[in-house]
Amino acid sequence: MTQSIRQAPAGLIRLHEASRRDSRLRFNNLLHHITEELLEQAYYALNRHAASGVDGQDWESYGEGLRERLSELHGRIQANRYKPQRVKRVWLTKEDGGRRPIGITVVEDKVVQQAVVWVLEAIYENDFLGFSYGHRPGRSQHQALDATYVALMTRKVNWILDADIKGFYDAIDHTWMMRFMAHRIADKRMLRIVERTLKCGVDEDGRRSKTVVGTPQGAVLSPILGNIYLHYVLDLWAHQWRGRSARGEVTIVRYADDEKRGDGH
Which pLDDT band holds residue 115 (cuts at 50, 70, 90)? Predict the structure, then answer.
């Protein structure tokens, strides 16, 4: 579930407006937006039927004594003592007989990630370009198809280029990810949460491994991190190329063919 800006707490609305007014502003005090109330909203926004992570705890059991849990979690976040747990990796069989990995994050980390997502959306929804449709509040594959249809039916088309980024989430470079985020975020505590999430590691049948590249499979935070990454490595470049070098009109539509990624399964 994605929270629209209009439904967000007053603090996030002010953050969104500050981001809109100054596209070069770097935010250095973001962690105070992650309140106990926001963490509670994040908990109730999660998929209630998702499988449990490495700690064996599901959504319902985490909710027992929720206020006390979130108060303690909030204290750890503010004191820089929060550390995400490893992602549990399982394999699903695809229709073609192949297998694909799925990551299962513990409920506590999903709660934190969802709260962080809302903070990041308040900033980056002002930055993302209009032709970006994947994993954004109020946008979908259907709107991407509509934009493509309008371009094909109302403009003179000579070429159509259909490109797919294979294994994109699994190949995101952590160093560049943090550099890109630093363009807008100066709060080291917020950046530390993101970096710790990226490097939380994997548990597969009791075998532990480090995460040196990519975003956690199925993590709530992964979709917006992917959009931030593509904003800098693809969208801004494509937008400038279209305006400066392209001959004739160019319509760009970027979308995600798996809108369920990061839903917390």
Answer: very high
Q: Which two tokens stand for residue 136?
A: 């954004």
Task: Give the DSSP H/E element, type plus range, for residue 203.
Answer: strand 202-204
Q: What is the pTM of this model?
A: 0.91
Largest interatomic CA distance in the chain: 62
> Nearest to residue 56, comparing CAs of 92, 85, 91?
85
Inter-residue contact 231 to 179 (CB < 8 Å): no
What's the pLDDT at 224?
97
Task: At 68, list the tokens.
Answer: 């006390």
What whole-number distance in Å separates Cα of residue 11 and Cα of residue 19? 12
- Token code pair at residue 40: 């509670």
Which amino acid, one-letter code, is at 227? N
pLDDT tens digit sequence for 47-89: 999 999 999 999 999 999 999 999 999 999 999 999 999 999 9
